Amino acid sequence: MISGRLTMRAVVERNIEAATDPYGHPLPPDFQPHGTFRCFAWSNQSRELVESEKTAMVEDMRAMFALGTDITENDEITAITDRAGTVIIPGRLRVEGKPQRKHTHLEVALKRIA
Fold first, then answer.
1. Which of 9, 34, 84, 100 could pair with 14 in a Cys bridge, judged by C-beta atoms 3.0 to 4.6 Å apart?
2. The pTM is what?
3. Which domains does the chain have, with CATH numbers?
């Protein structure tokens, strides 16, 4: 089933700071290791965004996880590796929105954090 497709590993961190300062503003996030989960990540498309004199590449990335994986919106992935631990997709990626439950897996949209 889906378990044969989950050939990558996502190193996930979660923000454990949920308090506010005396003025009611949220405190800066404090991301702590949450776990390493089996996954498969891919890029749907990438496009060039041109705005006046600035140019940026925008990439639509997604990942799937096994059902029951403890991953939520706003979790951050520090790296995606293969089974041997070699980094395949470096950098920080944020889970955008709630994970979508499919018939055999969870699917998440990812946003690269600069």
1. 34
2. 0.80
3. 8-18+28-112 (2.40.10.370)
